[in-house]
Amino acid sequence: MMSLLRPARSLRRRRLIAAVAIGASLAALTLGTLTLGDLGIDPLQALSALVGVGERGAVLVVQEWRLPRAVLGILIGALLAISGALFQIVTRNPLGSPDVLGFSTGAFTGVLIAMSSDAVGVLPLTSAALLGGFGAAIAVFALSIRTGTRGFVIVITGIGVTAILGAVNTVLVLRADDLVARSAAIWATGSLNGVDAGWVAPAAAALLLVGAVVAWRAPALQLLELGDERAAVVGARPALTRGIAIGAGIVAIAVATAVTGPIAFVALAAPQIARRVWRSGTIPLVPTAAVGAVLLCASDLLASRLFAPAVLPTGLVTLCLGGLYLAWLLAPRRKDSP
Prior knowledge:
Elements: H1 2-35, H2 43-50, H3 56-91, H4 98-101, H5 103-116, H6 122-144, H7 151-175, H8 178-187, H9 200-226, H10 228-233, H11 238-260, H12 266-278, H13 285-305, H14 314-336
Helix pairs in contact: 1-3, 1-13, 2-3, 3-9, 3-11, 3-12, 3-13, 5-6, 5-7, 5-11, 6-7, 6-11, 7-8, 9-11, 12-13, 13-14
């Protein structure tokens, strides 16, 4: 009996340590975002400025400029990670993330069309991103339905749709006027530079909505990851669960793309990192959201301070990290090859 309890205790201890480490990392990264910059602010001064105490300049910098960026880094990172987890569960493939399947590219297409039509503001851009994301999803599943709508087939189809939409986006940028083209080119790199507090409420609302859906269908999602047959046996209704997961995932990636532009790697890597850290057979959704927030906040802080005073796009840093991640992911397969 004691021998059976030891692994369970070890697993609980490991998960507690992981949760504390993730929480401490997120707190440290948030504090770094609030204090580091061309105008350096002492950590105690930054914490005081959060509640409006201290010098007026410090309060302005912390509350108006840096706090929205820190909060959006957490929210968008969590949205990207949850979206990646949902699509990896649906496809049962670690490459089944929205940036690979073309859904983030489709959301970008929608925003480009809106920008070319002089539509600005939170609601028009978010609506356009949602329409573009759902349009890309319809295209991927319609093209793959004849040969099977699961796993490897969807991933390959998604790569093809991503390439087509990338070409469409290039045409849209080339046909736009100079101001729109310049803005689109900067925004296409994916960045938290220039985000404002107006996006916090939509991002938070999207995270709450998607989080509620995920919590509602969490047991069914875990069964779906183990296979349709097992899910159907216990009454999990895999087709319905898959449809709900796809809808929630597209909402998450569309809102994230509308706020920051297309940011790669986070949705791809966060679910698999969380699975390894959490030592679970299925993707743990809450730890995945936390890991996504850490990855995006760390990338953004690195982008803003690596070549200071020049500020890199956050998406450029995540792309570099993504290349390293894929090299690590594929390394065991190279070793096994003849």
